Amino acid sequence: MLKTESLGTDYAGAMAQRPTSSRCLFCDAALSHVFVDLGMSPLCESFLQEGDLNKMEPFYPLVVYVCPECWLVQLEKYVSPADIFSEYAYFSSYSDSWVEHGRRYTEMIIDRLGLTTDSHIVELASNDGYLLQHFVKKGVPVLGIEPAANVAKAAEEKGVPTLVEFFGRESAGKLAAEGKRADLIIGNNVLAQVPDINDFVGGIKTLLKPSGVVTIEFPHLLRLMQENQFDTIYHEHFSYFSFLSATGIFSAHGLRLFDVEELPTHGGSLRIYACHDEDRTHPTSEQARELLTREVAAGFRDLNRYGAFQEQVVATKRGLLDFLIQAKRQGKSVAGYGAPGKGNTLLNYCGIRTDFIEYTVDRNPYKHGRYLPGTHIPIFAPERIAETKPDYLFILPWNLKDEIMKQNAFIRDWGGQFVVPIPEVRVYP
Ligand SMILES: [Zn+2]
């Protein structure tokens, strides 16, 4: 069972400390308070080809710290972003529900901000144009900025103009000098992956028109902690934000968070709204005040609150292994569904290889014929499920479980059942 009782105000035990030479990504304070230690793990997007299977594979510590000064939860830095993002395998358009999320956002924000064909929208980490394509259809001018050349190419093919580069003060300054400041800057699921948060948020300040608005979506640390979402921690995600820590970071760069929405995406995300400090046209909303109060009440200014997370993670791992060991003892077959980054953290941390999950499938053809990093579980096209008729389909991208269970309802024809590992292992007949 989920140990929700450990999330009360009574945090058992003192938090683990491990001195490191790393300093806080935002405020430069010394880091030593361990939020969670997930052991050693390979880079979660480094899918292997068959010829790589007999080679050495780099593993890096997956240890997350919390800054005692600004409360930013963050990974110690091990790898350079260029190693991670030059050929990124994640194409947003392979998720129907994420494309639909983008469409609904477009309708809402055009209406809320009164955007027209004279407006200029910039999306940071615009991926394959899954979102900006909806603005293009409405005739609103857009620019995508995306460091991974292969996904940027897919965006151009959708009619979304895209600059292939990392965003920061330098690229923002260049665009501003060319008269291309933005009425709306969008950044969805990029903030966590930014290696220099001050350069990134400083760039937003530079690129934003005086009356412009920024919306940024990121997974909410509160939900990560409440729902055991430790598998959303991986080397590509340097930081994990609360509304409290985000407010401090944006404020240091002259940007005010005036509103916030809580979204169901990625297991529970925030969409924050920011404007220039001096822009008085956006009063701070009741939701923004209330969320800040709620986070402080939940202990987000108390180090021991963060320290209690490790215990939950260990309990989740034991429960999951219990289930898999029993299933295999009963002679059941287990296939995976999906090959997301979060799956790789989960499988590597729990030590789950082909001894428990024979193979996984993914809709992204880039991954077919490749192997998951570390665990070497082979990846096939989804048709493999109907061919092999597994007893259990183990859903790795649990945030998309409803969509996946609907698409694969046919496994019930042979008595197949769905397994979802997070927040605790659950079987759906
Ligand atoms: Zn800090």
Write a structural description.
With 429 residues, the chain is an alpha/beta fold. It is 31% helix and 20% strand. The protein has helices spanning 81-85, 96-113, 132-137, 149-157, 169-177, 197-207, 221-226, 243-252, 286-297, 303-307, 309-329, 341-350, 383-388, 401-407, and strands at 33-41, 60-66, 73-75, 121-124, 142-145, 162-163, 182-188, 208-219, 239-240, 255-263, 269-276, 334-337, 360-361, 379-380, 392-395, 417-420, 426-428. The strands form three sheets. Strands 6-5-4-7-8-11-10 form a seven-stranded mixed β-sheet. A hairpin with a 5-residue loop joins strand 16 and strand 17. Helix 5 (169-177) runs parallel beside helix 6 (197-207). The protein is globular and about 65 Å long. The two termini are 19 Å apart. Mean pLDDT is 92; it is low at 1-10. Residues 24, 26-27, 29, 67, 69-70, 72 line the site of zinc ion (ZN).
Any ligands, ions or cofactors bound here, and which? Answer: zinc ion
Spatial separation of the terminal alpha carbons: 19 Å
Q: How is the quaternary structure best described?
A: single chain
- Percentage of residues in DSSP E strands: 15-25%
Number of helical elements? 14
Rg, please?
A: 22 Å
Average pLDDT score: 92
Low-pLDDT runs: 1-10
Percent helix, as a range, is: 25-40%
How do the strands of the widest beta sheet line up side by side?
Answer: 6-5-4-7-8-11-10
- Shape annotation: globular
Largest sheet: 7 strands, mixed
- Which structural class matches the secondary elements? alpha/beta
Count the beta strands.
17
